[in-house]
């Protein structure tokens, strides 16, 4: 199953998502994947004009592969500009992950703080390949490239909020 298929599952049916074993390392699925799926379930409950402003993740216990999990969302508060949400990943009746998220609309301000431009990432076709190494890299597709994108799957990541930390190709 491709990364994009898992994201679609979290968006369309978050209360019944099963992560295949190829997305696991040992007895647990990768935490970044669990966080990305919970983010997608949270994002689906928030107006599009409210980008993510804060995300706090607590991995309470492992999310086992090949076992259905429920990505639950509770809207704690919906204000004029800010939405506060709580996400819970439940598996076998137990909490595996907690996620607290704040989404907020931009507001006009007289204060203008200059910031650096975001990093420029190469297209995934231009990134260095990471070979499959049993127990280290995922085996769902044999070759992984920047941002967790597989050359074999040809499924580019389109949401920067779900990019896996450490897989960027800036400066390569």
Explained architecture:
- This protein is of the alpha+beta class and 172 residues long.
- It has 2 helices and 8 strands; from the N terminus they run αββαββββββ.
- The strands form 3 sheets. A 4-stranded antiparallel beta sheet has the order 3-6-5-4.
- β7 (144-145) and β8 form a beta hairpin.
- α1 (3-12) packs across α2.
- The radius of gyration is 17 Å and the shape is globular.
- The two termini are 28 Å apart.
- The model is unreliable at 140-172 (pLDDT under 50).
Topology (elements, then pairings):
Elements (H helix, E strand, L loop, with lengths): L2 H10 L11 E2 L2 E2 L1 H13 L8 E8 L10 E9 L3 E10 L2 E11 L39 E2 L3 E2 L22
Antiparallel strand pairs: 1-2, 3-6, 4-5, 5-6, 7-8
Helix pairs in contact: 1-2
Our measurement of the CA-to-CA distance between the termini, rounded to an integer number of angstroms, reads: 28 Å
Structural class: alpha+beta
Give the C-alpha Rg.
Answer: 17 Å
Q: If you average the pLDDT, what whole number results?
A: 81
> Element order, helices and strands?
HEEHEEEEEE
Strand segment tally: 8
Rough shape?
A: globular
Work out the strand percent: 25-35%
Order of neighbouring strands in the sheet with most strands: 3-6-5-4
Q: In DSSP terms, counting alpha (H) and pi (I) runs of 4 or more, how many helices?
A: 2
Regions with little confidence, pLDDT below 50 for 5+ residues: 140-172
What portion of residues is helical?
Answer: 10-25%
Biggest sheet record: 4 strands, antiparallel
Oligomer designation:
single chain
């Amino acid at each position: 199953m491709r990364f994009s298929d898992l994201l679609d599952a979290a968006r369309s049916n978050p209360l019944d998502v099963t992560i295949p074993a190829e997305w696991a390392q040992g007895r647990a699925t990768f935490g970044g994947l669990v966080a990305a799926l919970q983010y997608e379930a949270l994002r689906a409950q928030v107006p599009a004009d409210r980008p993510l402003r804060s995300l706090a993740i607590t991995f309470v216990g492992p999310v086992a592969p090949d076992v259905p999990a429920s990505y639950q969302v509770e809207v704690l508060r919906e204000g004029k500009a800010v939405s506060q949400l709580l996400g819970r990943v439940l598996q076998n009746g137990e909490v595996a992950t907690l996620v607290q998220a704040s989404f907020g609309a931009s507001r006009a301000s007289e204060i203008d703080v200059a910031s650096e431009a975001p990093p420029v990432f190469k297209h995934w076709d231009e990134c260095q390949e990471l070979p499959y190494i049993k127990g280290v890299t995922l085996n769902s597709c044999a070759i992984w490239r920047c941002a967790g994108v597989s050359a074999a799957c040809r499924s580019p990541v389109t949401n920067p909020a779900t990019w896996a930390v450490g897989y960027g190709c800036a400066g390569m």
